[in-house]
Automatic annotation (TrEMBL):
One of its GO terms (cellular component) is nucleus. This is LIM zinc-binding domain-containing protein. Gene3D superfamilies: Cysteine Rich Protein. It comes from Micrurus surinamensis (Surinam coral snake). PANTHER family: LIPOMA-PREFERRED PARTNER, ZYX102 PROTEIN.
Length: 212
């Protein structure tokens, strides 16, 4: 405020937002963040270096030089560099979006479902299943959900894992999960349908009778 009966000179630029004193005289002040400062008052909040003519960052009406501002930022848990823009948070850590990737295929997982293994390693769901899913005892491929699906069916018989379409009678090839051959009738470690199981038993019985 000033006395209206004694207005300030034309070199008066306002009150300094930092010290509250008048800013008078050409070259003694500067404007920033819609405020007026003495040149020697417009300094970094941390290192106190003068900021006129220098790049600075304004945070809640407080000015910071670039190095001090960067030091206040969170660091990416992958590259250890400061996160200047959008922060992606996952598994209790901060990431650059482009650093949050699958450990196997390196695909960015920003906005994509992911899974973490026991060691804390991040995987896309496809690679996680390929790496950790049980493997079919017939085709040796992992038993994992089809693309776009979240679940799949795994058949377990004789302590072995099967895809639904691989779960077939070893003799006739009939699918054991549906149709007339539905159901497994194992014999001597072999996966068989009811008919083939009966045929093998008859053959074994006949052979035993012949041997006698």
């Amino acid at each position: 405020m000033y006395d209206m009966d004694n207005p300030p000179s034309k070199d008066y630029f306002g009150r300094c937002a930092r010290c509250g004193e008048n800013v008078v005289g050409e070259g003694t002040g500067c404007t920033a963040m819609d405020q007026v400062f003495h040149v020697n008052c417009f300094t970094c909040m941390i290192c106190h270096n003068e900021l006129r003519g220098q790049p600075f960052y304004a945070v809640e009406k407080k000015a910071y030089c670039e190095p001090c501002y960067i030091n206040t930022l969170e660091q990416c848990s992958v590259c250890a560099k400061p996160i200047m823009e959008r922060i992606l948070r996952a598994t209790g850590k901060a990431y650059h979006p482009h650093c949050f990737t699958c450990v196997i295929c390196s695909r960015s997982l920003d906005g994509i479902p992911f899974t973490v293994d026991a060691g804390g390693n991040i995987h896309c769901t496809e690679d996680f299943h390929r790496k950790f899913a049980p493997r079919c005892s017939v085709c040796k491929e992992p038993i994992m959900p089809a693309q776009g699906q979240e679940e799949t069916v795994r058949i377990v018989a004789l302590d072995r894992d099967f895809h639904v379409l691989c779960y077939r009678c070893e003799d006739c090839g009939g699918l054991l999960s549906e149709g007339d051959n539905q159901g497994c009738y194992p014999l001597d470690g072999h996966i068989l349908c009811k008919g083939c199981n009966s045929a093998r038993i008859q053959a074994l019985t006949a052979k035993a009778s012949t041997d006698l």
